[in-house]
Amino acid sequence: MTDLLNAVERTALLTAALRAAETRRADRLYEDPYAARLVGEAGEGLLAEVRAATFPPDRPRTLPSTPDYNAIRTRFFDDFLQRAAREPEMTQIVLAPAGMDSRAYRLPWPGHLRYFEVDRPAVLAFKEERLRGVAPRVDHRTVAVDLTSKDWEGRLVAAGYDPARPSTWLLEGLLYYIPEPDTHRMLERVAAVTAPGSRIAADIVNAAALTLPHMQGLLNVFAKWGCPWLFGSDEPEALFDRYGYEVRAVQPGEPAADFGRWPDPVPERHVKDVRRVFFVHGRRR
User: Fold this and answer.
1) pTM score > 0.70 for this model?
2) Are residues 181 and 189 in contact, defined by beta-carbon separation less than 8 angstroms?
3) What is the pLDDT of residues 44-63, one digit of tens each?
4) Residue 194 in contact with residue 141, Cβ under 8 Å?
5) pLDDT tens sequence across 68-108
6) What whole-number distance in Å separates Cα of residue 131 and Cα of residue 185?
């Protein structure tokens, strides 16, 4: 199975494994009936590595609870996309990268919407095979191209995307895995093909999350997989503002991003040397 996928896609499989585990909970925040199918037999091993780092048997947990974080993140972005899709002028949603996401199959969507998934050809081929026989619930269009390529925008347009019309973009599980120059380039390129009024959402960590000693257990897992965390921002609002987006950044555990599941205190933004994750969401001016 993993012969098709490079190291970075292990994180997509991990997300699917976490979503499958969440779906089995009685108090689940969402239901993803396709997650177990997508991750297959790899799920148990991936979850075991993350659990061993997050919940050590010999000392208190100091890392963020990955299962709770993933559950909150998925539900937060589910709600964001569903709200965007209900806007009469919104006709396009883009997931970049798409990974093992199944929202096109598990959530209801209005009939006028075009739903684009952008990712490497091997990822989309793997996903298509795993979901063979399952029909998407939306006008679903895949764009098999690496986001580092010079022409992914042209490939997206060729698939039916219209840069002149409002769109909604989700950059989930992306920005902390790419170097800072690539993050800026990615936001610049997305802004160049989004009309005013378009919406955007992303998750991003702060700079301290990349270096704090108590984060090393989790950071080491991702580094061993070949996908280290490379970028964080203490001012995500300013980062997105630079490219024409007016956004809010909320942390898991704050009222807009809690859902009764975040187990840790949420430090005020002025507190230094603490780990943070932000859910950034807003509009193109």
Assistant:
1) yes
2) no
3) 999 999 999 999 888 899 99
4) no
5) 999 999 999 999 999 999 999 999 999 999 999 999 999 99
6) 32
